[in-house]
Amino acid sequence: MSIKKSILSLALFISPILANAHDVSGVDRLLLENGNLLTYIWVGAKHMLTGYDHLLFLVGVIFFLIEFKQIVKFITAFTLGHSITLITATYLEVSVNEYLIDAIIGLSVFYKGFENLGLFQKYLKISPPHLLNMVFIFGLIHGLGLSARLQSFTADQEGIFLKILSFNLGVELGQVLALVPIVYLINLWRKRNSFGAFFKAANTYLLIAGIALATYQIWQFLGHS
User: Fold this and answer.
1) Full 3-state SS string of 102-145
2) Computed from CA positions of residues 118, 121, 124, 129, in that sequence, does the dihedral angle turn out positive or negative?
3) CA dist., res. 45 & res. 51, Å (int)
4) For the chain, which residues make up each domain, given as ranges?
5) How many helices and strands in the chain, by DSSP H and E?
6) What is the CA angle 116-68-122, rounded to 5?
7) Burial class (CB in 10 A: 0-12, 13-18, 19+), 116
8) Are the CB atoms for 24 and 149 separated by under 8 Å?
């Protein structure tokens, strides 16, 4: 079976899993209710490691990045964006609909695959927006999704600012742990003749996964309206 067919088959199989990636675990709730700041770091890291929509977007971002300083620059822009909204929205108790935010996050995954495959130029006849700006903007949106999840974890406001910072630190640690092997594997594959086929297949998967995630979250929103 070709690389493209294999990844497309995998996409259809795990899309329902991706759609449920942000379900709040009862175990996590219990941990946070009875734990300390280290528990918030742990749950934040776990949430990012299982936050497939966040990771898929970042995978789409790093496909074109070869130099280490480029990767650091773009990941920093994303981190800054989601840290701003995660911290401020949670601390100020800004309420957003988690289904709609997660739907937009799903569309950000679709957007990155669409851009990587050159479909802005092919179908829209325009150049895509400046990538660094878009990564920062999508980081802000991803941070709102993280904030909505954190606010659903706990209603205890005692020491809330330190809890938010601890959760955000955990998110950053989880992001690093997830991205290091991903960056290594992509750069390793970049040296192979099959990288072109892998690139097209992987970004086609981003299109499918993004639509699946967005559709599922909109369906959830309509079901809870």
Assistant:
1) HHHHHHHHHHHHHHHCCHHHHHHCCCCCCHHHHHHHHHHHHHHH
2) positive
3) 10
4) 3-8+29-224
5) 10, 0
6) 10
7) buried
8) yes
Length of the chain: 225
Which tokens hold the place of 202?
């992987």
Query: What are residue 103's phi and psi, to 5 degrees?
Result: -65, -40
DSSP 8-class letter at 192: S
Tell me the angle at which helices 52-62 and 160-189 cross, rounded to the nearest 10 degrees: 50
The label of the residue with tokens 């369906």 reads: 219
3-state DSSP assignment of residue 96: coil
Structure tokens at 22: 């942000």
Q: Is the dihedral of CA 117, 123, 124, 125 positive or negative?
A: positive
Report d(CA 18, CA 216) in Å as an integer. Answer: 10
Tokens linked to 201:
């297949």
Concatenate the DSSP letters of all residues of 185-221 into one string. HHHHHTTSTTHHHHHHHHHHHHHHHHHHHHHHHHHHH
| Per-position pLDDT tens, the chain of length 225 | 454 454 445 444 445 445 455 554 667 777 777 778 999 999 999 889 888 899 999 999 998 888 889 999 999 999 999 999 999 999 999 989 999 999 999 999 999 999 999 999 999 999 999 999 999 999 999 999 999 888 877 666 778 899 999 999 999 999 999 999 999 999 899 989 999 999 999 999 999 999 999 999 999 999 987
Name the pTM for this structure.
0.88
Helix axes 98-116, 131-153, angle to 10 degrees: 150
